[in-house]
Amino acid sequence: xxxxxxxxxxxxxxxxxxxxxxxxxxxxxxxxxxxxxxxxxxxxxxxxxxxxxxxxxxxxxxxxxxxxxxxxxxxxxxxxxxxxxxxxxxxxxxxxxxxxxxxxxxxxxxxxxxxxxxxxxxxxxxxxxxxxxxxxxxxxxxxxxxxxxxxxxxxxxxxxxxxxxxxxxxxxxxxxxxxxxxxxxxxxxxxxxxxxxxxxxxxxxxxxxxxxxxxxxxxxxxxxxxxxxxxxxxxxxxxxxxxxxxxxxxxxxxxxxxxxxxxxxxxxxxxxxxxxxxxxxxxx
Length: 284
Known about the structure:
two-stranded antiparallel ribbon; 12 helices; elongated
């Protein structure tokens, strides 16, 4: 099966740091600190995903207004402590006495480092653009975004730091540093594939259990919000309604994106049945 272009781009952007290892003699600290700086970039794009979205209901404003600042503080503290940890463990005599901002300036002064950092920034920007084109602006639930960076960072950086200890003990062999780049690239490819399978917009068939549940929940074009029912002329009107947009906003906030896809798929089927019935009535 041919590789998708997105996977090729992930590989291309991730392999730029190899130039630093191969051509400029980067050490373990340089590579691990580069990946720490990428964590900061991921946090910035996570905040952008939270706040740059269509605001169709008041809850769309309330959720990012509360959760985005909380994320900035919480994730910022996480990155700060993580950065100090990396500097103290791998910085050596040249960096261990410096604060974190001075370490950033020192690392960015390394040949090829800025290009490598820009390549990882471009990867995150591309990922956001791809999601926006494929699934729409603000398609990620704010609650889901709160935890998404941690899931990717934790396991990967345990492996990278563990490898860093080994490489430091061995005297920073270039082949070992390249293997760290390969591990990082493989991790990004795995998560990209996992995200694609979980968030695919390709049409799918509802299971019998899902159909039974949806038929019970939406036996008629009626939606209940805040304990109040509203009836619509058709399922098409229901899906376009302000009430359904509010329901979608609440479900996204609560991290119920998969269930929302099931509901929207069921409504699409009901709308197709309505359209077919109308067309048949016109020919009678």
